[in-house]
Each structure stands twice: as structure tokens, then as C-alpha cells.
């Protein structure tokens, strides 16, 4: 069993935003091609503690298509290609305890377990909070790519100033070179100012604006990222400029009218229309899912019609597919093996049976 700690994962992912975005894009395309097995996430909740939860995300990501490449994966090397093209199976187990923030702790903690596809044995246990945050941010960067369609945004607005929007800022800076204006809003203004002081280096030289109200923030730029701990919808999008691209990462910020008044892109319709997300509420309200334009995998593959550009908000709502965590965890595992990084635990499993 290979054990990888947080610091080791951070070192292996440092400066590799472009590779991670490409890996996530490939995983979405493989999912759209039907090369995944992705049961619904399991939500463990607690009596009298509605904000706290632990989520299990099992999954299997099949090998990438090699059609037209003339290359096939080498036998015995599942999941070991640097490109992340191999197959992988396992599970992410991630907790969200919002009260941790006031105690100076991270809201989320996670572990990813990878299993061998030769014998099913668990083979790697990887600290998963950074993997989870960076695959989420890479997904957001892809969402921005699809929604913007090559258009340069006026700047970026971040709603919520926690770990996820820190990583979204990091990945959008890689995806959109030249981004030079940042607006932030948080229910705690002091927290917002600490965020920009700590992370301004991610967008060097950018003009920074701290917005006192949500509507001020929504009106500041035509690219917005929501990453909050909202449990119920609390805002529309009327304050946004026409055609604003909205990265609805936290999934429960937008009211039903806001969802129905936008062009909606998702990662997987079945997954996102559950657990009282804004899109789930919209489905309950309308009795259908016609308000969903297309999944991002189909848009990346060119098998869905492009998102209309008619001035309506363009909203990307990714539920967060476990296969993204597995793809990135396998990438980290393979890089660790190549570099001799991590702790190897022998004798974790029973020995061979005679």
C-alpha cells in the first residue's frame, strides 16, 4: 500500500494546472463516451447537524480511446500513462464540516482509495482534499472555456473566499492569461480582504475590488464563480451583465427562476439533479429537465450544439464526478511511483492463501 500525505500531493501538483485541466477534460470526454461506471454519491448526514456531511464517491474510469493514435496501452500498465489515459477504480471519501472554519481548520477533509484492477486490492491511500479542490477548479476552468467560447471576460468575480475559489482563481489564471481584474464578495468582509492579501500573487498586477453587496459583485464582471456554503438558493442573476458566464460550483446559490432563465451546462444531468441542488429544485418545479442545454463532455467532444449567445446568463453547474478525483489521484500515484515519493506499507493485506 502506498500512502501519500498532503504535502507530498501538493509538491506533485505544483505548477501543473494545464496538465490537470487536460486530464479533467479527458475524463469528461470518456464519461460522455460511456467509458465510466459512476454510482450516485452516498451522503452520510447526522441527526441535528444539517450542515455537516461526509460523502462517498465511488467510480470507475475506463481507458481512453486510442482510435486514430496507432498506439495501445502497454500490457500490465493500467493507469500509469502520464496522460492519465489508463483505467482506474476507487473511491473518494470527503467530509464537509463548515464549523471548522471558525476554529481555524479547513472545512473539507478527504481521502482517496485506489484499487488494483488486476486483483481488486487497495493499492494507494492518498490525502484527497487538494485533489478534490484542484479537480473542482480544473472543472471550473473548463466550464469557463466552454461558456466564454473564446470571448475575453472583463474580469473575474469570486463569490465566497474559501479554498475552492482560491483554486478556481489559480486555474482561471492559467486558463485565461491576461486576466487582470478581480472582484470578491464574502459575507465576512474581513475574510474577503484576507483572501486577496494572501492570494493576490495568483493574479499578479490585477485590479482588486471588494464588493459590499452580492448585487455589486454580480454586476462587476461577466465571469462569476460561486463557491459558498449556501444550503438553500439565495440569489438571482438579474444584476449580472448580459451573457455572464456563471460557474455555479456550490450548486445551491441560484433560485429556480435564475436557473430557468439561463442556458445551463452540467457535468452529468442525473447526478446534478438530486440532493436539493438548484437544478434539482428546478426539475421539481417544472417536472422535467428541458432547462439543461448539454453536459460538458458532449460540448468538449463536439457532439452537442454550442451554447447559445443571446444575452441570457450561461450557467455551469458541475455536481463533481468521482471519476475526476480518481483520474487525478491516479496521476499523483503514478508521479509518486516514478519519483520514489510516499510511504510504502508492506503487510497491509493478508498474504497469499495456500
Automatic annotation (TrEMBL):
Superkingdom to which the source organism belongs: Bacteria
Xref: PANTHER family: KETIMINE REDUCTASE MU-CRYSTALLIN
GO cellular component: cytoplasm
An annotated Gene Ontology molecular function: oxidoreductase activity, acting on the CH-NH2 group of donors, NAD or NADP as acceptor
Organism lineage: Bacteria, Bacillati, Actinomycetota, Actinomycetes, Kitasatosporales
Organism of this sequence: Streptomyces nitrosporeus
Pfam families, per the entry: OCD_Mu_crystall (PF02423)
InterPro entries found in the cross-reference section: NAD(P)-bd_dom_sf, ODC_Mu_crystall, ODC_N, SbnB
Protein name in UniProt: 2,3-diaminopropionate biosynthesis protein SbnB
GO BP: siderophore biosynthetic process
Amino acid at each position: 500500500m502506498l500512502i501519500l500525505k498532503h504535502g507530498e500531493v501538493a509538491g506533485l501538483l505544483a505548477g501543473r494546472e494545464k496538465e490537470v485541466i487536460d486530464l479533467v477534460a479527458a475524463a469528461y470526454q470518456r464519461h460522455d463516451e460511456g467509458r465510466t461506471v459512476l454510482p450516485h454519491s452516498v451522503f452520510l448526514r447526522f441527526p441535528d447537524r444539517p450542515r455537516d456531511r461526509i460523502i462517498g464517491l465511488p467510480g470507475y474510469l475506463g481507458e481512453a480511446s486510442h482510435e486514430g493514435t496507432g498506439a495501445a496501452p502497454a500490457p500490465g500498465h493500467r493507469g500509469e500513462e502520464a496522460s492519465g489515459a489508463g483505467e482506474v477504480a476507487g473511491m473518494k471519501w470527503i467530509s464537509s464540516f463548515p464549523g471548522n472554519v471558525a476554529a481555524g481548520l479547513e472545512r473539507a477533509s478527504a481521502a482517496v482509495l485506489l484499487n488494483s484492477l488486476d486483483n481488486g486490492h487497495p493499492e494507494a491511500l492518498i490525502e484527497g482534499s487538494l485533489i478534490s479542490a484542484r479537480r473542482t477548479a480544473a472543472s471550473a476552468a473548463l466550464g469557463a472555456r466552454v461558456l466564454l467560447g473564446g470571448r475575453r471576460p472583463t474580469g473575474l468575480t469570486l463569490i465566497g473566499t474559501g479554498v475552492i475559489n482560491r483554486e478556481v482563481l489559480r486555474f482561471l489564471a492559467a486558463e485565461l492569461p491576461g486576466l487582470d481584474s478581480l472582484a470578491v464578495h464574502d459575507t465576512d468582509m474581513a475574510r474577503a480582504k484576507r483572501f486577496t492579501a494572501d492570494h493576490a500573487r495568483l493574479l499578479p498586477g490585477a485590479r482588486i475590488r471588494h464588493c459590499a453587496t452580492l448585487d455589486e459583485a454580480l454586476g462587476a464582471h461577466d465571469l462569476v464563480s460561486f463557491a459558498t456554503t449556501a444550503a438553500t438558493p439565495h440569489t438571482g442573476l438579474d444584476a449580472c451583465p448580459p451573457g455572464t458566464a456563471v460557474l455555479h460550483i456550490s450548486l445551491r446559490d441560484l433560485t429556480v427562476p435564475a436557473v430557468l432563465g439561463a442556458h445551463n451546462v452540467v457535468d452529468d444531468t442525473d447526478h446534478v439533479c438530486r440532493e436539493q441542488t438548484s437544478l434539482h429544485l428546478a426539475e421539481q418545479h417544472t417536472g422535467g429537465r428541458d432547462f439543461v442545454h448539454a453536459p460538458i463532455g458532449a460540448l468538449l467532444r463536439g457532439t452537442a450544439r454550442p451554447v447559445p449567445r443571446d444575452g441570457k446568463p450561461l450557467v455551469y453547474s458541475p455536481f463533481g464526478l468521482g471519476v475526476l478525483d480518481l483520474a487525478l489521484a491516479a496521476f499523483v500515484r503514478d508521479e509518486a511511483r516514478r519519483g520514489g515519493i510516499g510511504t510504502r506499507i508492506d503487510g497491509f493485506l493478508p498474504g497469499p492463501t495456500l
